[in-house]
Amino acid sequence: MYQFATAAASGGAGSIVQLIWPFVLMFAIFYFLLIRPQQKKQKQRASMLNAMKKGDKAVTIGGLHGTIVEITDDIVVLRVNDVTKLTFDRSAISTSISHSTESAE
């Protein structure tokens, strides 16, 4: 009777590990395929938004192209043509091209 109880106890611990292992493996796959790349994109976007300055060319998420004429912590004013200036949230900027990289070309 004692041998049966110890065999059942040791077999139960092994089955728990076997049960948990696929979930750990799935989490690892999700982390490396979905979560980590998304975090990397968010860091790149945050650094791009922080690096913007006056004179940079910017494209909004709506596709509007313009040049930054004023910038604060949360607002960006873009000059679209000679007289039109539009105000956007800083988070509405999709891409930014630095003015210094344009002059280097």
Main sheet makeup = 5 strands, antiparallel
Strand order of the largest sheet: 4-3-2-1-5
- Number of self-contained structural domains: 2
Q: Strand percentage, roughly?
A: 15-25%
On the 0 to 100 scale, the average pLDDT is: 85
Total helical elements: 2
Strand elements, count: 5
Distance between the termini: 84 Å
Q: What is the string of SSEs from the N terminus onward?
A: HEEEEEH
Task: Assign the structural class, choosing from mainly alpha, mainly beta, alpha/beta, alpha+beta, or little secondary structure.
Answer: alpha+beta
Report the uncertain regions: none
Any idea what the radius of gyration is? 27 Å
Helix content bin: 40-55%
Identify the overall geometry.
Answer: rod-shaped
Main location: membrane
Transmembrane segments: 12-35
Protein name: Preprotein translocase subunit YajC
Family: Belongs to the YajC family.
Give the topology, please.
Blueprint: H1 2-51, E1 57-60, E2 65-71, E3 75-79, E4 85-89, E5 93-97, H2 99-103
How would you portray this structure in words?
A hairpin with a 3-residue loop joins strand 2 (65-71) and strand 3. With 105 residues, the chain is α+β, with helices and mostly antiparallel strands. The chain folds into two domains: 1-51; 54-103, SH3 type barrels. It is rod-shaped. The model has no long low-confidence stretch (mean pLDDT 85). It has a five-stranded antiparallel sheet with strand order 4-3-2-1-5. The longest helix is centred in the first third of the chain and has 50 residues, at 2-51. It contains two helices and five strands, in the order H-E-E-E-E-E-H. Helices cover 52% and strands 25% of the residues.
